[in-house]
Design brief:
- 2 copies of one chain form a homodimer.
- Chain A has 226 residues and is mainly α.
- Chain A folds into 2 domains: 12-59, Arc Repressor Mutant, subunit A (Orthogonal Bundle); 65-205, Tetracycline Repressor, domain 2 (Orthogonal Bundle).
- In chain A, 65% of the residues lie in helices and 0% in strands.
- Chain A has helices spanning 15-33, 40-47, 51-57, 61-82, 90-102, 107-119, 124-151, 159-178, 186-198, 202-205.
- In chain A, helix 5 (90-102) packs across helix 9 (186-198).
- The longest helix of chain A is centred in the middle third of the chain and has 28 residues, at 124-151.
- Chain A is elongated, with a radius of gyration of 21 Å.
- At the A-B interface, helix 6, helix 7, helix 8 and helix 9 of A face helix 6, helix 7, helix 8 and helix 9 of B.
- The structure holds a DNA duplex (30 and 30 nucleotides).
DNA sequence: GTCGCTATTGAACACGCGATCAACGAGTGA
DNA sequence: TCACTCGTTGATCGCGTGTTCAATAGCGAC
């Protein structure tokens, strides 16, 4: 008589607890199946409640998607950036970071990112969050590189544009991997990529534009979130 | 009495002609609004016929999307690759190519690509087309670089991995631009990017893996299309 | 001028979507 | 033990999706 089947969830929860369970369910659902899978009904089924209850806690799905996006990518960013080891040199650290981000097991987050670029053009709340998260990624990488330069002035690299190239390269590769289009030896190409970004002769790089140190290189920094 | 309003299209067309008009309409629609906008009804409205007629000529929407994708990106590839000028040196050519691909006016094609990476994971027909088109892009760039090396042996670049990095970088940047996250001076960073890819010291690049010349660097080349 | 072929239509089916709202009922304080 | 609060439900609306099919009507051939 199936006593323990189904999750024996208490029928009535304190609002904050229910809200947490709904958000958690949505986050895990989006991480598994992408942002497009975030429908009121799918989240409700995952959490084990009625669609109406999901709609009650998050009345507008568009902004809920934006919220879930931020939760997923912010967690990953903090994890990846947090595993930077100050005791090791920049190149080794960045190599680890690239390999981590390109690992197949991260395809779920890659899917979230790729969908966010497409959805972010029509969902303005999401678009703003996407820009904000990319700003955070960029400045985090910029800081790491700048810090490494401070300790080893022999490094002739522009932190801002290097961070920008790294992001573009990693994001492009991640997108490609979604359809399983990837070079044979990822480790070798990650090294090659890093070399390309870090070992550029200073000839042209530092002469053309001379970006003011610390100045944002973004055309339009993300607006504040509401 | 609005004699010329509406497209005065003949009611009944020869099948091939009608088919062409439907495909053309779908292509222009997807180019304007992305692959997600490709619904039976939207295409029908654009062409000026009934949804049932669209479904008659393209009974399965999933494969129609794949077909439209190929039409759009193949046309762009041929246009961009075709504008390569053999009389000019590699760097200048590639710089032009990058600037062309990153131009804001090409955001429509960028949207198609980004959506194709996401949709290609669940729409297998589309996924195969995506891999095929990326293969064509990769080998086209590889050929251009290899040809340049043949004329100027002073170039110490690995065509395969350079092409791969260029694609990743450009695709990443294009994706970013969809949500209007872009560096201030694109031209400067395009130059910087190109320098990164072309001027890598040969120390590590050529020692680690020594890829067989002409051998595909892809883990799994795209299967044949049906 | 009529016939027959077939391109084209209209209608319908079975879904899935976000959103809304009156009504229910579990838990709590009196 | 009663009554009230409010978390939760079920039902419904309006819309959009792909797909199917009998019925219509335009056009060329005879």
């Amino acid at each position: 008589m199936e006593t323990t089947s189904r999750a024996a969830a208490p029928r009535r929860l304190p609002p904050e607890e229910r809200e947490r369970s709904i958000v958690d369910g949505a986050v895990s659902l989006a991480a598994e199946s992408g942002l497009e899978a975030l429908t009121v009904r799918a989240v409700a089924a995952r959490v084990g409640v009625t669609p109406a209850l999901v709609a009650h806690y998050r009345p507008v799905m568009e902004s809920f998607v934006a919220e879930v996006f931020t939760a997923i990518v912010a967690a990953e960013r903090e994890e990846v950036i947090g595993s930077y080891d100050p005791a090791v040199d920049l190149r080794t650290n960045l190599l680890r970071l690239i390999e981590t981000l390109l690992d197949d097991s991260r395809d779920d987050v890659a899917m979230v990112w790729v969908q966010s670029w497409a959805l972010g053009t029509r969902n303005e709340a999401l678009g703003a969050r996407v820009r904000a998260e990319m700003d955070l990624w960029h400045s985090a990488l910029e800081d790491l590189i700048a810090r490494a330069i401070a300790e080893d002035p022999a490094l002739r690299v522009d932190p801002g544009s290097s961070a920008w190239m790294l992001l573009a390269m990693v994001d492009g590769m991640s997108a490609h991997s979604l359809v399983h289009w990837a070079p044979r030896d990822r480790a070798a190409l990650a090294r090659r990529t890093l070399t390309a970004v870090l070992d550029v002769p200073a000839t042209e790089a530092s002469t053309t534009e001379a970006p003011a140190p610390g100045a944002s290189q973004l055309a339009q920094p993300a607006e504040n979130l509401r």
